[in-house]
Write a structure and sequence with these properties.
By secondary structure, this protein is an alpha+beta fold. It folds into 2 domains: 52-246, Penicillin-binding protein 2a (Domain 2) (Alpha-Beta Complex); 249-306 and 334-455 and 497-675, 3-Layer(aba) Sandwich (Beta-lactamase). The protein contains 24 helices and 23 strands. The strands form 7 sheets. Strands 2, 3, 4, 5, 10, 18 and 19 form a 7-stranded mixed sheet that branches. Strands 14-13-23-22-21 form a 5-stranded antiparallel sheet, with helices on both faces. A hairpin with a 5-residue loop joins strand 8 and strand 9 (231-238). The longest helix is centred in the first third of the chain and has 36 residues, at 2-37. It is elongated, with a radius of gyration of 35 Å. The termini are far apart.
Length: 675
């Protein structure tokens, strides 16, 4: 029995020895694997746990006026940021108890609730290599506390970030534009190659147009951190490089005056009456452009109502964003100088005059009568017979019936060509395109609208797009009613370019549309002898220290108007008479008041325009250039529902010219309503 028990104990001891030996063998094998075969991998993992790469933001380049006055600059902002991956899980919740403690400490330090901190981190989409800003412009003692007690704030950074500053608030807002976080759609575009989520990019204005020059080069830091994410030191660093400086063509002093004069004139004009309707003018919005006709430089550009680009810094309030895009608020975000498309009214008559001269319908000496009425119920703005006149006087008096007659004769000649099956010489449309109408003029701003020069091809295309709508509308009204007849005609024959279309276009009505900047470049061609300059706001790009010029705009004409000898002189003479002669449609605006504009020293040429828009009060236009004998400035003013051009737009333009030539700016005084 004892021998049996002894044998059994020996067996158990042997088995135990084998098990222990096996365990040690496995352990040594694992250690050998970890140290020899997988050693490099685990060293790499250990390094990655103690090294953190952080991208540091680069300041954008400043935007300056032509004399170096800052329109946009930067300021340093003390900022608390967080490593999202260190504090939150994939569901946007604190990843562990330690993260909850960090968020709680930040809550007390930043005077924010824990939920607000989590929301600040999750609301922004940032690159994993970039800390997410939680709060900017914090007190220095907050930064000190985080730096001094880094062990209590793992994954939290206290840094100084550049913040965009718009020191002149609303001044030149539509010129400079605003910034916003890059969208996922923009990230797919080639021009944004190398950008990351969370990057700020120009969304409008020159901020967008010159993004590649203004954006700096990010810096990079290699930080040593412990297992809890506490920064122990900096291992390597590449400093950020600021963006380049952009000098613009804008004269800040004149820009301020243009905006002030435009707003004051729009508001003051609302006390004036529109004589045809008996209503007060609404004057809901407007724009103004000052262009140098010698090179296409945009010296000032204003759109009202306007906005403060600073609203977008740090993210705009959603309600404020809606207001800026709301029609009831006047669409402040819209740059009406390049995005507002309107019938040009009688300012278009320079096109019709040159077209008739080019076509040989008239010479500068030819005369036609200016009756108060014309066929199809068409009327002249002046209710009595205005005599017989040449083309210069027709411009001075803005005689509608003069241009009706010429355009209708041209339309009949084109119809004969059309019926014969040959090419149709749409002379008026071709001349309009010489002036730059019907296409974008190519200004260095995003969002420019092309306007419209209607003709046979456009009418056919538009009819094909609208035919089903016309046919459907015709069925909504009983046969015999005017609406039924109208929509039935449009359904069946709406593609036909009729004589009425031609005569409407000849005075800037009907389907023709222009932008204020297009009119500025067109009148610039009259002022400079035919060159339609491509307008621009960028003047030059310099290095961040301002010492080296990296790029300079080289002006060049986009097209040219082929003025024949005598034609240009006739048109110029007519435009000068508009302002100078007692019966000129803008004379009162420049002669009224106790301090008339000094036309003897600074002669002005210009053209009024009153654009009829269905269901609304007319829009007011005035375009001028001065000095008429050596033009330095073209000025365009447009006021939506502002009545007659002579009544509202011309008085505003006069005040802009006073500011441009350093004259005392007179109080706004409404003109006499003509055309």
């Amino acid at each position: 029995m004892a021998q049996h028990e002894s044998s059994s104990a020996t067996l158990r001891l042997t088995l135990l020895t084998l098990v222990v030996a096996g365990m040690f063998a496995a352990l040594f094998s694992r250690l050998w694997f970890l140290q020899v075969l997988a050693g490099e991998r685990y060293v790499e993992l250990a390094d990655s746990n103690r090294v953190r790469w952080v991208i540091t933001a680069a300041p954008r380049g400043r935007i300056l006026d032509r004399d170096g006055e800052p329109l946009v600059k930067n300021r340093p902002a003390l900022t608390v940021s967080a490593d999202r991956n260190r504090l939150l899980n994939g569901e946007g919740e604190p990843r562990d108890h330690e993260a909850e403690l960090v968020i709680s400490r930040l809550s007390a330090l930043l005077d924010m609730t824990p939920d607000e901190i989590v929301q600040a981190i999750t609301n922004r989409k940032y690159s994993p290599f970039r800390p997410t800003p939680i709060k900017k412009d914090v007190a220095p003692e907050v930064i000190f506390q985080i730096k001094e007690h880094q062990e209590h704030f793992p994954g939290v950074d206290a840094e100084t970030l550049p913040v965009r500053v718009y020191p002149h608030a609303t001044t030149a807002a539509h010129v400079v534009g605003y910034l916003g976080e890059i969208s996922e759609q923009e990230l797919t575009a080639e021009r944004f190659s190398g950008y990351r989520l969370g990057d700020l990019v120009g969304k409008s204005g020159v901020e967008a147009a010159y993004e590649e020059h203004l954006r700096g080069t990010e810096g990079l830091e290699q930080l040593e951190v412990n297992a809890r994410g506490v920064t122990l030191g900096t291992l390597a660093q590449r400093a950020p490089i600021p963006g380049n400086e952009l000098f613009t063509t804008v004269d800040l002093g004149l820009q301020r005056e243009v905006e002030r004069v435009l707003e004051e004139g729009i508001v003051a004009s609302r006390s004036q009456m529109h004589r045809q309707s008996g209503q007060n003018l609404k004057s809901v919005a407007g724009s103004a452009v000052v262009l140098d006709p010698r090179n296409g430089e945009v010296v000032a550009m204003a759109s009202w109502p306007t906005y403060d680009p600073g609203l977008f810094v740090g993210g705009i309030d959603p309600q404020e964003f809606e207001r800026l895009h709301d029609k009831q608020s006047g669409l402040p975000i819209l740059n009406r100088a390049i995005q507002g498309e309107y019938p040009p009214g009688s300012t278009w008559k320079i096109v019709s005059a040159e077209a008739a001269l080019q076509a040989g319908q008239i010479t500068p000496q030819s005369t036609l009568p200016c009756p108060p009425r014309w066929g199809w119920g068409k009327r002249n703005w002046y209710p009595r017979h205005d005599g017989t006149m040449d083309v210069a006087r027709a411009l001075m008096r803005s005689c509608d019936t003069f241009f009706y007659e010429l355009s209708y004769d041209q339309w009949r000649a084109e119809e004969q060509q059309n019926k014969a099956g040959g090419p149709v010489d749409e002379r008026y449309q071709a001349t309009a395109r010489q002036f730059g109408f019907g296409d974008r003029v190519g200004v260095d701003l995003p969002g420019e609208r092309p306007g419209r020069v209607p003709g046979r091809e456009w009418k056919q295309s538009y009819w094909e797009e609208m035919r089903d709508t016309y046919c459907s509308k015709a069925q909504e009204f009983p046969p015999g009613e005017y609406a039924h007849r109208l929509y039935s005609e449009l359904c069946n024959e709406g593609n036909i370019w009729r004589g009425g279309d031609a005569v409407n276009m000849s005075i800037g009505q009907g389907d023709v549309l222009t932008t204020p900047l297009q009119l500025a470049t067109a009148f610039g061609a009259v002022a400079n002898g035919g060159k339609v300059w491509r307008p621009h706001l960028g003047l030059e790009v310099r290095s961040p220290d301002g010492k080296e010029t990296l790029w300079r705009y080289e002006p060049g004409p986009a097209s040219e108007v082929a003025f024949a000898p005598g034609h240009l002189q006739a048109i110029r003479r007519g435009l000068e008479m508009v302002v100078r002669e007692p019966r000129g449609t803008a004379n009162y605006a420049f002669r009224s008041g106790g301090n008339p504009f000094p036309l003897d020293q600074i002669p002005v040429a210009g053209k009024t325009g009153t654009a009829e828009v269905g269901g609304r009060l007319p829009s007011a236009w005035f375009v001028a250039y001065a000095p008429a004998n050596a033009p330095r400035y073209v000025v365009v003013v447009a006021v939506e529902e502002g009545g007659g051009g002579s009544q509202t737009a011309a008085p505003i333009a006069r005040r802009i010219l006073e500011a441009a030539f350093d004259l005392p700016v007179t109080p706004f005084r409404a003109g006499v309503a003509t055309d």
